[in-house]
Specification:
The complex is a heterodimer of chains A (349) and B (267). Chain A has 349 residues and is mostly helical. Helices cover 78% and strands 0% of the residues of chain A. Chain B has a single domain (3-32, 65-260), classed as Orthogonal Bundle (MetI-like fold). Chain B is 75% helix and 0% strand. Chain B has helices at 3-23, 25-28, 60-66, 68-96, 98-112, 116-127, 131-158, 161-168, 173-209, 221-230, 237-265. In chain B, helix 4 runs antiparallel to helix 5 (98-112) and helix 4 packs antiparallel against helix 9 (173-209). The chains are: A mainly alpha (349), B mainly alpha (267).
């Protein structure tokens, strides 16, 4: 008996190791493919990085020297190799508009976006899961229809438009919340931002009113981004729950006299957990993309606004850097979730 | 009439209306959408201008009608490229199996993990503004879903009597794949396509909103929202009408995607 259990245990850990290694290989290949796409994009772009650096009035020799310094006179495969090497050292080039290394810029703006997306995700996950459970419990009835409609709406509304409408109603007309920006003007230039998380920094500053100002500016963007998350989470979780409810174990639980709520919470929910985890991760990764638009509408400094500013300025290094960072977060969130689900559920492959 | 069939009818009705608006814009629009009358700028709704006028005195209703065109074109272009690419690769992977399947499925999984909206932004930012550049990005990130569906469908079909019978009749090669396997893959694609279209509408509108879709005078819903957004605190209706149009079309696609899926659930 003991030898048997040791054997299965080692076999299990071996299988787990194999899953982890395979996931890591997949992650690396995905990132490499993303790099190749962004590299190809930079090469196809009509923006000439050397010309952008030296300006229109530079002499031909200065221009050629800059091309040489940037390594643009090498062959494409050599350039790609250098690009990957530079990225491995965290070197994303110099932003044309800020004059700073893109890597430093991104470090500065990432916390704000992470804060916004995480808060929105928390609200979205809590409300979305609750609505999905309600809809699954009362499937086919009026409350289910209403919830499905809300979820559809959350998935169909353009967030930038909803942002404008919300600003008009709740800021301009009702004065319930703060307007664009992350703080009232009085605080914007008096508070240091060492961490980049506006709630943390406003709280630490100890200035009276700073924290409530930060919160009143956060409410609308968080809720609007959460609206998208609620739509996604509710819709996909409801389907996952309903698919489970047609399984035989549910019939058995009911036959043994378990109440509907008990069946849903104790039997169906744990079995759908892997799928729900995947849905949450996918939604979170998409919120990072949605933040691009919400930050632009609400004029909140963050990764998304950094990207759109770079787009308007034709700032190629900044566009590529921001795209890669969002892509990296996206790929990692999805990859790690996939790995967790596989490790937790022996039925998956 | 059940809620699902109501949703489906709503979806079909909105999409037909949208198609008609786009195609017949020159006959339906009461004014030239580019005609500026600065003296009549920022007027509220009236009998002359049903939805008022914008910051340059252009008729908003006419711009709304013409604005159906760019997005319509984008949706058709993306659909016409994305679905055939995905179908072909998926059917090949499912039918051939072996290393072809492994390479194609690997590629599919990799591309599926790309962030769609951000890549579309990067494409447009680096290659220049225009919905065509955005279409490349949307096709690049969109085809894997179809490849995956077609692969699963083909794998199931490969072992079926139906295909065996076709092979016995001497039907092989491309004619077997595209005449007999492909039609069986279509139903699974429809739901996914409707779902994707809703996302494409929102992505196109987002690009327009950021000023990266069409060059300025051309009417486009997303850029109309952006224009209206500048004066939203005083003339709120300017951003409302195009925003509602985007919402309606995207909701229509989502309704079409949702209704048949619920049917399959048996609810």
């Amino acid at each position: 008996m003991p030898t048997w259990s040791i054997m299965t245990a080692s076999r299990n850990s071996l299988a787990a190791l194999r899953i982890v290694v395979r996931a890591l290989i997949g992650l690396t290949l995905t990132l490499l493919a993303l790099l190749i796409v962004t590299f190809g994009l930079a090469k196809l772009s009509p923006i000439d990085p050397a010309l952008a650096r030296v300006g229109d009035h530079a002499s031909r020799s200065t221009y050629l020297q800059m091309r040489h310094e940037l390594g643009l006179d090498a062959s494409w495969p050599v350039q790609l190799l250098r690009y990957v090497q530079q990225l491995a050292h965290g070197d994303l080039g110099i932003s044309l508009s800020t004059g700073q290394p893109v890597e430093q810029d991104l470090r500065r703006v990432l916390p704000a976006t992470a804060e916004l997306a995480t808060l929105a995700m928390s609200v979205g996950a809590a409300v979305g899961l609750a609505l999905a459970l309600l809809a699954a419990r009362y499937a086919g009835r009026a409350s289910d229809l209403l919830i499905r409609f809300i979820a559809l709406l959350g998935n169909s509304i353009p967030v930038f438009w909803l942002g404008l409408v919300a600003l008009f109603v709740f800021y301009a007309r009702l004065h319930w919340v703060g307007g664009p920006g992350r703080l009232d003007d009085a605080y914007e230039y008096t508070i240091d931002m060492p961490s980049g998380f506006v709630i943390v920094d406003a709280w630490r500053s100890g200035i009276p009113g700073a924290l409530s100002s930060a919160l009143s500016h956060l409410v609308l963007p968080v809720l609007i981004l959460a609206g998208y998350a609620i739509g996604n989470v509710t819709r996909l979780t409801r389907t996952a729950l309903l698919n489970e409810m047609h399984q035989e174990y549910v019939m058995l639980a009911r036959a043994k006299g378990a109440g509907e709520l008990r069946v849903l919470l104790h039997h169906v929910l744990p079995n759908a957990a892997g799928l729900i985890l995947t849905v949450l991760a996918l939604t979170y990764a998409n919120l990072l993309q949605g933040a691009v638009l919400v930050e632009t509408v609400f004029a909140r400094p963050g990764l998304g606004r950094y990207l759109t500013t770079a787009l308007f300025a034709g700032d190629a290094p900044a566009i590529l850097g921001a795209t890669l960072l969002i892509g990296l977060c996206f790929v990692i969130v999805n990859g790690v979730t996939d790995l967790l689900v596989r490790l937790a559920d022996p039925r998956v492959q | 009439m059940s809620a699902d069939s109501a949703a489906r009818r709503f979806g079909v009705a909105v999409l037909i209306a949208w198609l008609l608006l786009g195609v017949m814009a020159p006959w339906l629009a009461p004014y030239n959408p580019l005609l500026q009358r600065i003296a009549d700028r920022l007027q509220p709704a009236s009998a002359l201008h049903w939805l008022g006028t914008d910051g340059l005195g252009r008729d908003v209703l006419s711009r709304l009608i013409y604005g159906a065109r760019p997005t319509l074109g984008l949706v058709v272009l993306v659909g016409a490229l994305m679905v055939p690419i995905g179908l072909t690769l998926g059917i090949l992977a499912g039918y051939c199996g072996g290393w072809i399947d492994r390479v194609l499925s690997g590629t599919t999984n990799i591309v599926m993990a790309f962030p769609q909206l951000v890549l579309a932004l990067a494409f447009v930012g680096l290659l220049g503004p225009g919905l065509v550049h955005a279409a490349f990005a949307l096709v690049l990130t969109g085809w894997p879903a179809y490849a995956r569906l077609a692969r699963v469908e083909t794998q199931q079909l490969r072992r079926s009597d139906y295909i065996a019978a076709a092979q016995m009749l001497g039907i092989v090669g491309p004619r077997l794949l595209f005449g007999h396997v492909l039609p069986a893959c279509i139903p699974a694609m429809r739901v996914r396509l409707a779902l994707d279209m809703a996302g494409i509408i929102l992505a196109a509108a987002a690009l327009g909103f950021l000023g990266l879709a069409e060059r300025p005078p051309t009417p486009e819903w997303g850029s109309m929202v952006a224009d209206g957004g500048k004066v939203v605190f005083d003339q709120w209706w300017l951003a409302t009408a195009p925003g509602a149009a985007i919402l309606l079309v995207s909701l229509a696609f989502n309704c079409l995607a949702d209704a048949p899926r619920e049917q399959a659930d048996g609810v």
